[in-house]
Amino acid sequence: MLWPEKEKDVLSEAIAAALSANMAFAAGVLRTTVDGLANIDHIRREAGVASSRAEIARQRMLLQGQSQAARLEHVHDILVALHTICGAANTLAISRQFQHGSDDNDTARANGYDALLSTLRAEMIGNKVQASVGSPDAAAGSDDLDRAVQALALAVKDYAADACTSGTQPM
Q1: N or C end: fewer C-beta atoms under 10 angstroms in the chain?
Q2: What DSSP string runs through 32-80?
Q3: Phi/psi at 68 (5° precision)
Q4: Are 151 and 70 in contact (CB under 8 A)?
């Protein structure tokens, strides 16, 4: 390939966009009332499209022989975690149709997801923030969405740790 760095940039940008879109969807579901559930369709679509673009970019690198196997395996783990977040957020949105909707705890969780997103994005590009990547407070909730977000935090932490031990820049 003539411009391998360009492909790496495409993957980096796609992963960053998928990370942002899926976390925005998760936080949006938590903030949405029953009456506003129809309004989250656009962020749901953005999350799905961004995840698809990231998966395509990863697969393209694999097919072009730019395997960097360990790095792309960690990217795969991140993408699986993002798909799990999207699924858990969809399940929560559907169940909200039959419940009361958002409450103060959900708003606090959504705010925590927003803060975590900043930390994860910084970790993805190799900036060490805090001691390590955090995860949502287990006391805030331990539903499927929180567990999926915790899995994402661990996948990003593993990705960044592998990049540090291999001496490469994460993204």
Answers
A1: N
A2: --GGGGGGGHHHHHHHHHHHHHHHHHHHHHHHTT--THHHHHHHHHHHH
A3: 35, 60
A4: no
